[in-house]
Structures are given as C-alpha cells and as structure tokens.
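Deliverable D5.2: sample structural annotation.
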Amino acid sequence: MSKELVKQTISALYKEDAVLELANLDVFNTLINQKPPQKWIKKNPYANNSLYLPIDKVEFLLRKIYKRYRVEVLTVQQMFNAVQVTVRLHYLHPVTNEWDWMDGTGAKSLQLKKGSTSFDFSNINTNAVDMATPIATTMAMKNAASKLGRIFGGDMNRNEIMEIVQDETLQEKKFNIERERIMSAIENGYEPTEEEREKYGL
C-alpha cells in the first residue's frame, strides 16, 4: 500500500462520525475489560483451584450490557470419553447497533459407573450423555463470552495482563468535535444546558 493511500485511509477513518463511533467503542471496550466483582469469582477445586465466573453471572452481564443476545449451538459431538459442544454467541452491540457473534467451545467427560477403573463403553452410565451435554454447552457459552471482555471472565487465570485504558487522543478528538458542534448550534440560537456549559467550558 502506498504512503498516499495509507494517508487517505487514515484520513477517512478519522472523519467526524467515525471518530465519535471509535471513541464510544473505546469507552465501551474499556468498561467491559474491567474485572468482575470479586465476590462473583469462584474457585474450581477440581481444576487446581482455577478461577471462574458462574454462568448465572455471565448471563446477567450479557442481559445487562448487550440487552439482546442468543446462543446458537453449532455442533454437539461425542469424543472418546467426553461430549464436546461448539456454540455461537450472537449479541446486539450497544454502540454500533449491529449484530455480531463470538464462538466458544466446551467439553465434559462422560460419567462412568461407580467403581469403574478404566474407560470402556460398557462402563458409561446410561444417562451420561444427557448429563454431559448441557454442562458442555454452558462451558462453551462461558468460553465465548469470556472472549468479549474481562468482565465476563476473560484473562482470569493469566498471571500477567495489560491494563486496558482509554485512548486519550481519540477521546480528545471526540471532545473537540462535540464542542464545535455545540458552538455552531449556539450561533443558530441553541441554548446549551448547564451540564453542557460546564463540560465544554462555554
């Protein structure tokens, strides 16, 4: 790509409406990459006390943040000793007002008859698949949601993570655009609110 084309692309990216949407996305991404409340986080004693967010909290956050979402089950398959599920989490983005999606996978081992010492199809409980499938589906849904942001449990078991903060340059561009729009409106008889006067120094 030529330097001139790069210049034109960047220029187009930073048109007023694009700046406003990018700035709003920046704020939104910063918010959903905050850690979830400490009291919501649980430890899994069967997985080296790894941290996780229960499904009821994940579903609550999806409803609260995205308002509209749905889960599409893409595949359910029995592996050698487990059920594996892949889901697609569809959500209506509150900033762009467009539908988007994120895939996730989950698996749950099949329950064996009491006293079984090795995996053998004759040792599988009769309802093992029925029990494992919804658990694997839940895990797949949590896996998909965790990719949306840390508020949903992403990065919870990583030792080193980078803090996500707002792009101050982008936020300043947004501020200047909004201030100029209000100044232009005032010239045409618009009466700014007290909040606008205080925020933009009018």
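Annotation notes: DSSP finds six helices and five strands in the chain. The chain has a mean pLDDT of 87.
The annotation will be released with the project's public dataset once the embargo ends.
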